[in-house]
Structure formats: C-alpha cells, structure tokens
Amino acid sequence: MIIDELLVYQLITAQFPEWANLDIQRVEPGGWDNRTFRLGHDLLVRMPSAPVYALKVEKEQEWLPKLTPHLPLPIPQPLAMGQPGCGYPWCWSIYRWIEGETAAVGAISDLSIFASDLAEFLKALQRIDTKGGLAAGAHNFYRGGSLKVYDAETRQAIDLLQDQIDAVAATAIWEAALASVWDKKPVWVHGDVSVGNLLVQNGQLSGVIDFGGLGVGDPACDLVMAWTFFTGEARIAFQKACGLDSATWARARGWALWKALIVISGLSKSNVHETEQSWLVIAEVLK
C-alpha cells in the first residue's frame, strides 16, 4: 500500500476539512510501523503501515492524555483520530507536533545526565496508576510480558549464528533472563525506548514519542538502552538512577539480546543500518 502525501491530503480533506489548507510533508527518517507526515507547523499525521500496528491507534488516543499530566517531559498529544477511507483501511492519528531532533551522541551535551533524565521519566511512568491499562499482549508485541514468548525464536537465532557469535555466552545470558519474573505490582511500560523515540533540544532529553508499545507489566523491556545506546559512565548512571534489582537488569539484558539476535539472524525484517547497529549491541551484551 502506498502511504504518501496525496493519501494524507485526501483523508484530511474528507475528514478534517478545517486542516485541508495546511502543507503536508513526509517526516524523514520515516518509521517502520507508521508513516509520519508533518501537517502545517504544529500538527503531525501518523499512519499505521500494517494491521498489527493499527491496533495501537485507539490505545494511544485513550491513554496518552491520561498519562501526560504525570510525566516530566512532553509526549504525543492526540488531537483527532481519523477513520478508514480513500482506500486506506485503518484508523490513524493527528497529534500536536513536538519540537526536537532524534537522540544521537553528537546532539547530547552530557550522556550521563541524559541517561539519568531518561531514568527519571521511566520512573514517573511506572508510578502512574495502571487501573484499566492493557496487559502485555499482541497489541504491543508482549513488551512488559514474559520473555518466554520469544524463547524458541531466540534459541533459533543463536543456532543460526553459532559460527559468528559466542553461542555459549549468549545462551547463558538468555537463560539468566528467563530465570526470574517481575513479582511486584505491574507498572506502565513504554515498550520501545530507543533513540528513534527520544527527542533532544539544547543537548538535553526534551520529549518521548511513539507509545504504540504501551502496556502494563514488567519494566525490564524499557531498560535496553543500557546496551543499545549507553556505555561506560552513562550506563552506570542509567542503572543507578533506575534503581531496580539485578534480576530485572538480567531480563532487560535478555530483551536487548533477543532483538539484536533476530535482526542479525534475519528472523526480523531490517535494513543495513539496523543490522550494523545490532552487531554493536551484541558486542555490548556479551561483554
């Protein structure tokens, strides 16, 4: 399906004519789950690219306004939910635009402060009342749920890569991750804490976006930045600020390992950049 500026214009004109005169510009780099377009100066259109991603639209529309007052940083603000039309089969969203650039080492003034600020955001998210929240499931690829969902896939990936990685070490890390469960009260999880979903302004963390993985459960899945982005003192600062036990960090390491393994083994669709980055993550996880 072609999701482009013309389709967005047709949908806006048909369903939200008050915004039909605004310029439409594709946001690059674009996401895999959704296609994103800037609408005028202040708005954002987000279009799911497949049925599984469309499941997340109504969830974000319902919950983001409820979470916003309790969080220390801006998150997407839903303004309207579009309906299927013009040959497009799913619901879609219009949000308020959040200023900022995608997080990258060169854009961040102090990685340790950035890591601590991210930890504070996650702790604030975890403190919010979870009544009515959705438990981990297909709607968020089981983020916040048990890693056992991905056990067979992970072991298959390790087997496929046994000549390229330390398969014994990877298996040991994976089994350590499976050895415990979150035995405390379920908490809110973002579900996809990655550099692509973190915004930076003036060298500091300024916003968190893309809550399609939102759910209630084990916070371990939100901690993978410890291996996917942070190293050295920044990793220590992140782990210290999060204040979680070693078992939770073992599960977090398992989440980071799983994702990197399925990317480099070819079990997950990916591009060259994602594959290269996943090799770096594997190196960090296996240290």
Give a verbal description of the structure:
There is one protein chain. With 287 residues, the chain is α+β, with helices and mostly antiparallel strands. The chain folds into two domains: 5-96, Phosphorylase Kinase, domain 1, CATH 3.30.200.20; 101-285, Aminoglycoside 3'-phosphotransferase, Chain: A, domain 2, CATH 3.90.1200. The chain has helices at 5-15, 51-54, 57-67, 111-127, 151-160, 167-178, 225-228, 232-242, 246-264, 272-285; strands at residues 24-26, 34-39, 43-48, 78-82, 92-96, 101-102, 187-189, 198-201, 204-208, 215-217. It has a five-stranded antiparallel beta sheet with strand order 1-2-3-5-4, with helices on both faces. The protein has a three-stranded antiparallel beta sheet with strand order 6-8-9, covered by helices on one side. Strand 2 and strand 3 (43-48) form a beta hairpin. Helix 5 (151-160) crosses helix 9 (246-264) and helix 6 crosses helix 9 (246-264). The mean pLDDT is 96.
